[in-house]
């Protein structure tokens, strides 16, 4: 349906469907139905925030020493923000003495702190079907938290020495895992 209106001495027609305006025809051109400047500004702010957050993740990965990509899951017990499955997106982690600090989430929006008591299981090869996006040969390690919960950490084999932290430091030779 097309309606003709005179508005501020301009003649334009409004192209509309029942209940919805889809555009305006004026001076031989179809114009947008009304994406306001506020909506446009909001879109740009969201895109800028997203780009900044992704840049922050890249900056952490490239410039901070001893940061490694990993995935974590609970093997025995419970821990908030973790379940029995590895997450889809790899988190970034760093050791601070015997505390493992993990930044997880698409935009690294959640920080988790794991006060670890001991290492339970040394480096073992991980199932590549269960642990994806960590390289061709991911490895797992298991740690016991102060509250008794056991967590498993998966990392790429190149990052296995960083993932061991202060618990498995007696390895003097490089890691090699035979399949």
CATH topology of the largest domain: PH-domain like
Low-pLDDT stretches: none
- CATH architecture classification name of the largest domain: Roll
Q: What form results from the Cα inertia axes?
A: elongated
The CATH class designation of the largest domain is Mainly Beta
End-to-end separation in angstroms reads 70 Å
Q: What share of residues are in beta strands?
A: 35-45%
Query: How many structurally independent domains?
Result: 3
Count of discrete alpha- or pi-helical segments spanning 4 or more residues: 2
Compute the average pLDDT.
79
Order of secondary-structure elements: EEEEHEEEEEEH
Describe the overall structure.
- The protein has 2 helices and 10 strands, in the order ββββαββββββα.
- It is α+β, with helices and mostly antiparallel strands.
- The chain has 3 domains: 2-32, no CATH class; 36-64; 66-164, Roll (PH-domain like), CATH 2.30.29.
- The N and C termini lie far apart (70 Å).
Q: Could you name the key traits of this structure?
A:
43% strand, PH-domain like, 2 helices, 4-stranded antiparallel beta sheet, elongated, alpha+beta, 179 residues
């Amino acid at each position: 349906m097309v309606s003709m209106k005179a508005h501020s001495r301009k003649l334009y027609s409004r192209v509309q469907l029942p209940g919805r305006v889809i555009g305006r025809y004026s001076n031989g051109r179809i114009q947008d139905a009304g994406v306001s400047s506020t909506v446009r500004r909001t879109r740009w702010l969201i895109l800028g925030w997203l780009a900044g957050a992704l840049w922050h993740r890249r900056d952490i990965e490239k410039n901070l020493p001893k940061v490694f990509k990993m995935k974590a899951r609970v093997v025995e017990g419970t821990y908030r923000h973790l379940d029995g499955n590895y997450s889809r997106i790899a988190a970034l982690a760093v050791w601070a003495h015997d505390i493992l600090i993990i930044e997880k989430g698409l935009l690294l929006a959640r920080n988790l702190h794991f006060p670890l008591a001991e290492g339970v299981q040394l480096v073992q090869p991980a199932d590549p079907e269960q642990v994806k996006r960590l390289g061709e040969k991911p490895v797992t390690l298991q740690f016991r938290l102060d509250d008794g919960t056991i967590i498993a950490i998966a990392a790429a084999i190149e990052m296995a020495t960083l993932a061991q932290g202060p618990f498995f430091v007696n390895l003097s030779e490089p890691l090699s895992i035979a399949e």
